[in-house]
Design brief:
Layout (H helix, E strand, L loop, with lengths): L4 E3 L2 E3 L3 E9 L9 E9 L2 E10 L7 H12 L6 E7 L3 H6 L25 H12 L6 E5 L9 E5 L9 H14 L3 E5 L9 H7 L4 E5 L8 H17 L12 E7 L3 H4 E3 L4 E5 L6 E2 L4 E6 L6 E6 L4 E2 L2 E2 L4 E2 L4 E4 L3 E6 L1
Parallel strand pairs: 5-6, 5-7, 7-10, 8-9, 9-11
Antiparallel strand pairs: 1-2, 3-4, 4-6, 8-10, 11-21, 12-20, 13-15, 13-19, 14-17, 15-16, 18-20
Helix pairs in contact: 1-6
Bound molecules: zinc ion.
Length: 340
């Protein structure tokens, strides 16, 4: 039997689900306060705590429906351990935008973790979430949404990128990434986002963390939502919070993320209209044609676009109208195929 848990002033008894808000008083110029909603599902038995958040980039909401399905079916009476859910960025969520005018950096909230109680509005929100919610977590899943023209993938950081992150934390983060069950694991082999992401702040503090990017064909793409639903559940199963064995796809691929897009993204030299000749998930060799540019004036082919390296066709540009120098197809290097 577990004890009651107190999360941000909310007491939750074993076997109960409860929700509340983090309040930041005098948040706005007019003196109004801010509320950040969160929920706690506290198991009857002792166990680990998983923290999950969705939409710190306010328009990236794909994970919401996965958590709606999962949290509505979970019975804390049968859980061993705790799940904490938070909708961390009410400002960007309201604006339906990735970032807001209140973010000190263009990458939005995910460039300022672990926040600052005396900083900008976004930094104050992050600090509150970090100290009141994330501080309870053994592991963290930060759900994001990517473009329509890419697969679902999971970002995590390779061992050694951070001097502070313990090897054990990096190893478990990779395990979480695999357990999430997306077709692609995308390992950051160099520092990402100035290492001020929630994920980086977590691993630097010894808390394994992943960032699933739920690519798909709409805001609620059935396949992406299903992967996220199964993925969070798999991690909860692996942590022993709920019963059962993780369900994984037969095959996953591990790709190498690089900070410099020139290394792995094909660019065009001429402007025009781009037609890809490869599909997502294809493997190509360095110098292979991945598409061509034609002129909307003459309909002549102006340029054949080549792959910058040998790798996996990971993203294809969404709008075919391109100006000189724009990015067209990304082809990260394949580290290995994982058979399950
Ligand atoms: Zn994002």
């Amino acid at each position: 039997m577990s004890e009651p848990v107190k999360v941000a002033g909310l007491t939750v008894r074993p076997g109960e689900k409860a929700r509340s808000v983090l309040t930041i008083p005098n948040f706005w110029a007019d003196g109004q306060s801010l509320e950040i909603p969160f929920m706690v599902l506290h198991g009857k038995k002792l166990g680990k705590t998983l923290y999950v958040q969705v939409a710190q980039h306010g328009s990236e909401i794909m994970g919401l429906d996965a958590l709606r399905r999962l949290i509505n079916e979970l019975d804390p009476g049968k859980m061993s351990g705790t799940l904490i859910y938070c909708l961390p960025n009410p400002l960007a969520f309201r604006e339906k935008s990735r970032a807001t005018m209140f973010d000190p950096k263009p990458g939005g909230m995910n460039r300022i973790w672990p926040g600052d109680p005396e900083g900008s509005l976004t930094e104050r929100m992050a600090h509150k979430i970090w100290t009141e919610l994330v501080s309870h977590a053994d592991e963290v899943v930060d759900l994001h949404t990517a473009s329509r023209y890419c697969p679902v993938w999971v970002f995590y950081e390779a061992d050694g990128v951070s001097e502070k992150a313990p090897s054990e934390t990096a190893r478990r983060s990779e395990e979480m990434a695999r357990l999430f069950g997306a077709p692609v694991l995308y390992v950051e082999t160099e520092a990402y986002g100035g290492r001020r992401t929630l994920r980086a702040s977590c691993v630097d503090n010894g808390v394994p963390a992943i960032v699933p990017e739920l690519g798909g064909h709409a805001h609620f793409d059935e396949e992406a939502v299903n992967i996220a639903y199964r993925g969070v559940k798999n991690i909860m199963k692996d942590l022993g919070i709920i019963n059962g064995d993780a369900e994984l796809p037969k095959r996953q691929v591990k790709l190498k993320w690089r900070a410099d897009p020139k290394v792995y993204v094909s660019h065009c030299d001429k402007g025009g209209v781009f037609i890809p000749t490869v599909s997502l998930g294809d493997t190509v060799k360095e110098g292979d044609e991945v598409g061509f540019i034609y002129s909307p004036r003459s309909f002549e082919t102006l340029e054949k676009v080549k792959s910058p390296q040998t790798g996996y066709v990971f993203t294809i540009r969404e709008n075919p109208v391109v100006h000189p120098g724009e990015r067209l197809v990304s082809v990260p290097e394949i580290i290995e195929w994982l058979e399950n």
